[in-house]
Amino acid sequence: xxxxxLPRAMDHGSGGAIDGKIYVAxxxxxxxxxxxxxxxxxxxxxxSWTQGAPMPTSRGGIAGAVYxxxxxxxxxxxxxxxxxxxxxxxxxxxVANTWQTLEPMQPGRHGTGAATLGDKIYVPGGADVIAFGAxxxxxxxLP
Length: 143
Hints:
By secondary structure, the chain is mostly beta strands. The protein is built from no helices and 13 strands. Strands 1-2-3-4 form a four-stranded antiparallel beta sheet, with no helix packed on it.
């Protein structure tokens, strides 16, 4: 069946499912610099999208994983820093509708993924330069 579209056109965002809802954070529309802090929440019970608290750091090209009922967002691209990548790690608590800024990833990267396995979040590869710069870094995050 068709579901309602995202409230905004976007790519290079990330998200996950928590307690039956889908959370979609950040991303961009049109260009690397067109990133956002927006958090969209889809509730399949009523078929509607709402907005949650915005991410502290606007970015696209991010990785995300769910752990212990929170959405963790890693890195990204579109920064004005040398290399153009973000090292931020932020976690969203849907119960409190708040974000927490955590220890940054080293090195900052974009174009990676993240996956929870057991009590760890794995963040492999990615790139340390905007639009390219692949690295062989593999980090294990312990929330």
